[in-house]
Amino acid sequence: MRTFIAVLFEPDVAKQIMDAVGRLESAALRGHFTARENLHLTLAFLGETARPDLVEQAMREEAGGSFTLVLGGWGRFPGRGGDVVWMGVQANEALTGLQARICGRLRAAGFMLENRPYTPHITLGRRVVLPHAYDPDMLEVPALSQQVDTICLMESTRLEGRLRYLPQAAVKLTG
Ligand code: 2AM
After folding, report:
1. ipTM of the complex as predicted
2. From the CB of 146, is ligand 1 less than 6 Å away?
């Protein structure tokens, strides 16, 4: 099973993010844009995992307390066929601490995780090509925040040829 750990968004917040996806899609020359049901913020990407039960255990053991996530800003990861365009989150020690604790525990349990630094982001589109005159302020959303009290173990799969991210387990942040 191809897995990752993610924060999902409550309906009001998801709606505002999807509005930004819509603005991006209208402005772009081309690209693939995130579907509502796939919207998420990745905490850790694990790839092919034979023991999702161990991942869930690590999530439970390191859960800690709930926290507020403030969204805003945007960025691009340049790529060959176009860019990943994302919405950012404000610096958040609870989020990065949670990510570091879970990844540390998984590495200690023998999981091979990527070593690149964690850049929290919400992918709005992939392989996106924007006009040169594009005004990035179009992606700005009004101050958007969410109380994060759950993290999810997700499966990345294909359903009828379409990429889908399916929640497999939810872990409460109650510490
Ligand atoms: P992305 O949105 O920037 O592509 C599921 O694939 C989630 O895990 C996506 O949010 C993806 O980030 C993230 N992810 C992180 N590292 C990945 C990798 N090496 N391959 C695929 N997805 C990765």
Report:
1. 0.93
2. no
- Map out the domains of the chain as residue ranges: 2-172
Q: Which pLDDT tens digit goes with each residue over 120-168?
A: 999 999 999 999 888 877 777 777 999 999 999 999 999 999 999 999 9
Q: How far, in Å, is the centroid of ligand 1 from the Cα of 123?
A: 9
**SS3 letters for the chain?**
CEEEEEECCCHHHHHHHHHHHHHHHHHCCEEEECCHHHCCEEEEEEEECCCHHHHHHHHHHCCCCCEEEEEEEEEEECCCCCEEEEEEECCCHHHHHHHHHHHHHHHHCCCCCCCCCCCCEEEEEEEEECCCCCCHHHHCCCCEEEEECEEEEEEEEEECCEEEEEEEEEEECCC
Whole-number Å distance, alpha carbon 14 to ligand 1 midpoint, is: 19
Question: Is the beta carbon of 84 within 6 A of some atom in ligand 1?
Answer: yes
Q: Is the CB of 4 under 6 A from ligand 1?
A: yes
Q: What is 2-172's CATH number? A: 3.90.1140.10
Residue 175 has pLDDT above 70, yes or no: no
Q: What confidence tens digit (pLDDT) does each residue in 4-33 have? A: 999 999 999 999 999 999 999 999 999 999
